[in-house]
Structure formats: structure tokens, C-alpha cells
Give the backbone structure.
Amino acid sequence: MTLTIVHLLPELLGTYGDRGNVDILSWRLKERGIAHDVLTIGVNDEVPTFADIYLLGGGEDDAQIAAMEILKRKDGIKRALENGAHIFAVCAGFQILGESFPASGGRKIPGLGLIAVETISAAQRSVGEVISEPTIPIATLTGFENHGGQTRFLEELQPLGHVRHGVGNGANSNVEGLVTEQIIATYMHGPALARNPELADWVLARKVGEMVPIKAPIFTQLHDERVRAVNH
Amino acid sequence: MILKVIILIANLFGAISRMTGRGNGVMVTGRIILKLDPGAVATLSKNRRIVLVSGTNGKTTTTSLIYNALASSMRTLSNFTGANLFAGVATALSKDTKARIAALEVDEMVLPWAIKQTRPELVVLLNLGRDQLDRLSEVRSVAQKWKEALQDLPLDCQILADADDPFVVWSAQDWAKVIWFSAGVMGHIDASTCPVCGHVLHWADGGVSYSCECGFAKPVPEWVLQDGLLFGAQGQNIEVKSQIPGHAAISNAARAVIAASLFGVPLWIAADAVSRVSSVDGRFGELHIGETKFRLLLAKNPASWRETLATSASGPKVVLLAVNANTQDGKDTSWLWDVDYAPLQGRDVLVTGERRVDVSARLTVQEIPHLIVDNEVAAAKVLGAKNADLIASYTAFHRLAKSVERP
Ligand SMILES: [Zn+2]
């Protein structure tokens, strides 16, 4: 079986290098000889409903709203989830999946409502290195956050990590990101899956099952260097 | 205290800073001038004809080219070293009180202040792209700040703006005296949404033109650059050449020719003057380390990396990348993943800088073989007597540019 990875709307949600997450997943599969395709879905394309892993990146305010409108209209993501797909979403992508997110002029934009979170404006933009201890069995997480929103859980949900440095979801929660059966969402750029090879493999393993380890010391080195940089 | 005395004092501190090796004195001098007289830039700009140049990429080169084009006919001053913040502008204006014309490079966020203080005669707007997202704002909010700031221009001021960049167009289009320039390239790698209404922008003709359902569209340019020929709406045409490598250099040279012509310099004289400029502030300068001869190139954000990698592709087989992530570089290195490193394919690649591990991870995924080295000296030891390109991010570049041999 060939695994299909879908990169959603990179023209709109690709401001912060998050396309690297797609490249990382693809590279790690290739290193293991696991057959896969990467589909890049542009603003005029239909969102496929049959693929395995969908990725959403970060973007500027207008682009975020435009992306949300397109995804809502096309309904593909919702049906993909019903078909068992997994989603990895970063920053604006995280917010889009929730109930609502803020826009200029105090507007409140309804999101896709696929996770029970809402995002409101924070008094101050959160910018800088973020380090958290994951709630899943992988190494400490490292990323670079840059967001003006704070994201609140509307019901009891599992965060991706407990923040040790930086802000994360904010809203006095001390947590970062979110994990559900099918969705992983985070504020971590970096890109997150380049800096956190164990997270990348965890995302893949949820879909393809146990995988052989790969030799790629540069990613472990990058991970350890970024974690150390903040501990100083 | 009168301004003359203030400048004397400031220059003294600048000289001390230079002699004690703390800096080149430009920042110290300017800071003291502005501290003692916050209105100094306004005073120093009076009775002068001012050109301001701003944008994400190409500021230093374009300003230098404009300076050269103007200086061919009139005594002109400029902030040559890329010192484009408040202090740099103040220092430049204080250095030469006799120059009647000033060509000033200003940071995107400093432009509103510079407009109020200097009362310019011409503002040159280049482009707006992603740059240091951790420090600067997103493109839209910079464009918004420009849009507001341009309303403070003196009524007879002209704007020379890039029609290829939707966000530049949006910021400048309310002004009555805009001269649109088009180099016929996709002027903006990030403009996916319409600056006016936020909907998806439709790009056509391979990225040359754009429009939106709301009516926003690329304006008709008054000056067009095509295959090195610059055409004006009044039938003017002139060949534009540059000794500075790369596509961007020709566009910047064309802008300089237009800018100088607005100050009465004949096109051919301006074109001749800009064609003689070969190196600006260390860019493309030669650097000898050990036995290796490096050509120094600056790359600081996705757009500028693309341009620089394309330019370097026709250069030597060996290339050293030096990437830092200090404040002036931007502390977030995520953008490395937005750059296509294919032009490095088949070349001998070395990687250094404080964030060499990030770069190495990035190149690994694109399957570009490379060697990590501690610094440029270690690279030179590996390379020996070879020619190499050294592509450096902002702070790495400026550290190395000091050692560049002036042509
Ligand atoms: Zn529009």
C-alpha cells in the first residue's frame, strides 16, 4: 500500500517554512523504503478525501482566513477524517481546526470546528524558542513559536506538551499543542518535524505502524542543540 | 546647543568608538546627534533634495547605484554602509554639509519617521517580502505602515514604486504622483492574497501580472525593463548594464537610472555611471582566507537566497554557506525550508555559521552532499588554493565584509 501525504494550501499556509514538515515526512519514509506520494493541494484543487496524512502550516491573517474559507467550502478534510486520515497542523493551521480564531478589527472567524479549542487574541505576541515535555513517549520537544493568539481547550483534551520555556497555547495553561486520536496540532515552527525527529516518526508510526529506525544523526544533533540553546 | 557643536561632539565619540575597536563609529555618532537634538535630521535635511530608498531586498545596492548616478552630476551624500536606521541616517546627513542631494537607504520600519523628518523629493519603494519574521511584522502590516506614512509626503514628492509587487502597489497607489516601474518578473514570492480584500490573488503570465475579483490589479508601468533595455512611456529607451552579478542588479540599476533622471541627470549619463559600479558594501567582493579566494555574497531571506543561489550557480564549483541567527538575521531559521537549494546540486558544498546544523539538516533532506566546518578558516584549510563563493547571512556577511579587498 502506498501512503499518501497531502500538503494543504502551501501558497496560503506556508509563511514560516512549515513545508519542511512535508519534506521531512517524505524523506523519513524514503529512507526506510516505504512507498508514498506527496500531493500538493493548491487553492483551486479539490481536497482529496482518501489520503493518509494531511499537513497544514502557518500563515498571515488574511491567508489564514482565505485558507479556512476554502477548506470549509470543500469539506474534504472532514470527510478525510471520517475515512481515518491523520492531520498534522501548525500555528494558523492549528487555529483553523478549532471553533474560532481572531482576525483584525476584533472579528471572530468561525473555524472548521474539528477540535474543541478556541483561539483569542493575546495581549502580546509570543515569539521565541519554545521547549516542552511531551505527553507522548518521545524526547523533549523544541520549536520556534511566533503567534498572536492564545488557544484555550473547551473540554478536557490532551496537550502535546507541558511548556518548560516559551508560551505555547497560552491562556494561562502552560501547555503546548494538542493530541487527539487523529490530530496533532502545535505552535512549533522550526519546522517542528525537522527539530523533533522522534515526533516525526511518531506521526508516521500512528499511520504505518512500527518502523525500523533510520540513521540520521544530524536531526538528533539539531534537536539536542536547540534544547541546549534554551537551557543556557 | 547648536547643531554644529552637537555634530562635533558626536563625531568625537564616534572616533573614540572606532579607535577603541568597538565599532565603525556610525551608530555612536548618530545616536548622540539624535539624543542631543531629536530634530537634527529635519534640520540637516532642510534645503536639500532627498531620495529615500526602502524595501526588503536591494536597498543598499539600489541606494549606492542612485548615489553614483546622481554624483556623476551633483555633489551627493549617502549612508553607504547600509546603516539604515535612525542613527545611520543622522550620521550620513551630518558628514557632508555641502552636498545638496542625499540618497538615503532606510529600513522598512524607519521609513515613516524618515519621511516626516527629511521631507523627501523622491521615495523609491522596492519590494516587500518575508524577512526576520520574529522581529519585523508580517508583510501586510509593513505595507499598512507604509500606506499611512506615504500620506505624510510633501505634495510634490514623487514615488518610484515596483508595479510587480502587489503589496508595494497597495501601499503607494493612493498617492497622486507614483511612477510605476516593472522589471517583468514575479515581484513577490509571498503575495498569495489580495492586499485590498484578502481573497486569493490571481497570478497570470508566469507571475508577471496579477489581479483580484475586487478590482485590484497590477498598474500599467511607466517604465519597463526588458532584456536589459529600459523603456519609458515617453518613448525613452536606454540600455542598462551592471557589473554587479545577478538579475536583481539590473533591475536596481534601472531604478537608479530612472531616479537620477527625475533629478535632471540625462539617461545616458546615469546609465553610464551605474554601469561602472562593481561592488557595493562588500557584496561580491574578494576575500582571501588562507590560500582560498572567496567571492562574498549576501543572502538574508527566502527571496534573497533564491536570487543569490541563482547568481552563484554560474560561479565557482565550490560554495561555502554561512548562516547565523542573531537579531539582525532573524532568530527563527524556519525560512531555510522555504528555499530551494537545487542550484547547489553537483557543486562542492561546505556549511558553517552558528546555525550550520540547521542548514545541514535542510540540505540532507534535499539530498545535497555537504561538509560541516567550524568556520571560514577551517573551510579554507579544507579547500586550499581554490576559488569559492561564500554565501553568508546578514551578520556573518557583515563580519566578513570588513576584510573584503576594495576593488
Ligand atoms: Zn481583492
Notes: The CA atoms of residues 102 and 108 of chain A lie 5 Å apart. Residues 3-231 of chain A form a domain with the Rossmann fold fold (CATH 3.40.50.880). Chain A is about 30% helix and 30% strand. The pocket of zinc ion is lined by residues B 194, 196-197, 199, 212, 214, 216 (CB under 6 Å).
